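Our consortium's second objective concerns turning raw sequence data into structural hypotheses that experimental partners can test. To show how far this objective has progressed, the report includes one record in full. It was chosen at random from the queue rather than selected for favorable results. The single chain below, 651 residues long, was entered without modification.
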Amino acid sequence: MSSSLSALRRLRTALILFVTSTSLFTSTARADPTPVPPPGQPSRTGPANTFQVIGTSGVSAQQLFLGTANKVYVVDKTEDNPLRIKSHPAWGSEITLNPTYSVRAMDIYSNTFCAGGSSLGDGRWINVGGNEGVSWGGVAPGVQGNNPAAYGGAPYDDYDGGAAIRLLMPRDDGTCNWDDNPKNYMSSRRWYPTVEPLEDGSVVIIGGDNIGGYLNSADQNNPTLEYWPSKGNGTPVYLPILDETLPANLFPLTWLLPSGNLFIQVNWETEVYDYKNNVEHRLANIPAAVRTYPASGASVLLPLTPANNYTATVLFCGGSNVAAGQWTSSNWIVPTYPASTSCVKINPDDKKPVWVNDAVLPEARTMGNFILLPDGRILLVNGAKLGTAGYGNDSWAIGHSYADSPILTPLIYDPHPGIPTSRRLSRAGLGSSKIPRMYHSTAILLTDGSVMIAGSNPNPDYTVGNGVQYPTEYRVELFYPWYFNYTRPNPSGLIDQIGYGGNYFDVQLSADDLKINDGGNGPLYSLNGTKAILIRTGFSTHGLNMGQRYLELQTSYTLNSDGSGILHVAQFPPLPTLFPPGPAVLYIVVNGVPSVGVLVTVGNGQIGTQTVNTVTPLPGNVVPVPTTSTGTLTTIGPKSTGRWWWWWWDC
């Protein structure tokens, strides 16, 4: 692993320089940011820890992402949604959240069935791959085997989406549309591909199959990766792990690591992949269960923070303990098979990564969705106790569903240090939904800190009516976490673009802001508990949020004598691999209670090499102290925070 070791040594050195320089030196330098207005309070509220139906999605929400603070975009497969556009059913929609909830139909030409997606460094979103053109019921007209139907014909008139690249630049004025142009298409077909952002604002597109079905197979498999925009000569790169993990190797679980390598988990196998040199470094198999589709365990990159030295830890929960031969056994009754209760985690950038058992789920779960919350905890929603993802016409299917026994009550996972493993998962005080969220369900964080939950459609086409146990679902819910019981901080001085290195910026917090959830401990306690958090909410589909990421910025503070304060916020560490460029949401979190987030651009707003600047050291913490002679307040500082973070590596 010499290439990986070199990358890790560079990472270690850069992080030592960053965290020590921002903690130990003082400076009077100031950023010259473009400020945005204070974010105010949430426009929509509900009782904390409850679900609320707020509208419909127009098309079934197989794929979901937050495009602007006020716009959510929905993508479905080709099917007979009631929402129409240009005399055919719509397969895409735009949800406007405020001031009035509304839905606009969007036209997509090619079949987006089981596509992947992500944000790009220039602010656009990319939707990748899909399936052949189909007619009613998802049937390709007159085409069998490996020859995809280029055109579905009536009633949908859709095109083959297997190699499609669809692009969207979100806008708040309701005028944006999908660019579904064959000139942008890939060189190979990909159904169920994974899309992960890279440090230059491009994306890597991994795996998938040709046409396929419930499972992948050797004659359908696409064991390669490619990039968009293309790199080199554009030829897909062979990835052996995808040839060795059939049949459950679709939507390979992938994250860009701080080292610059990719962590890939697929079926039982795991590796760190040096994509720049095309070198695989195999790790031990994942314990207890398969997590990739169709076993579909929940997975998430845990928060990257100064306290953990921005160490990447990946968590997996649920899935299914299915042996290779069992997937294709004619005796296997899928929706009666219990999912897994196992949770495991790993630090892939360690010298010798090892799997560690974590908390145990209170019930088995497949198709769960992990959502990073601004307070650093993680919401687990959606899914079922029995079966797997997928649907079909089998006699044993529940209608068409390959899963049964939906889970309606969420869980909270707390990764904070000091929490015993046995207490990391909790549902204390959490309400339940009334809507089963099975196959093709989605969830994303919104800027107000609520979680939008949509979709569920384990059916080949639009299926509703009496007696349909798991119908095509259009209702959209919000889940309101615990902090909806509190008035939110309303900081000023937030900015709309954050780079790698450079000057810090100052965020002002009022005395009232610093009283939020302080337990009577006062403003100094609150400033010590205030954080600046960046979250990329990701592209949600099939229990994944591709590109989802959480990073805490370095901060120091000045406490004013009137009880107000200034949070000095460093920009990103000078390592784009920690948080790739593109759109994200910035929250100021006081004692666990987040402000309404503001949408920011991470990086230079372009696809390509990112600007990396010298870090301007943060000032030390400044606090007023009473004098003994007059009782007036005198400020002492700047003062070192006294905090050290060590990045240790035994080479």
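The partners drew two points from this record. The longest strand covers residues 582-590. The two ends are 12 Å apart (CA to CA). Both points have been shared with the crystallography group to help prioritize constructs.
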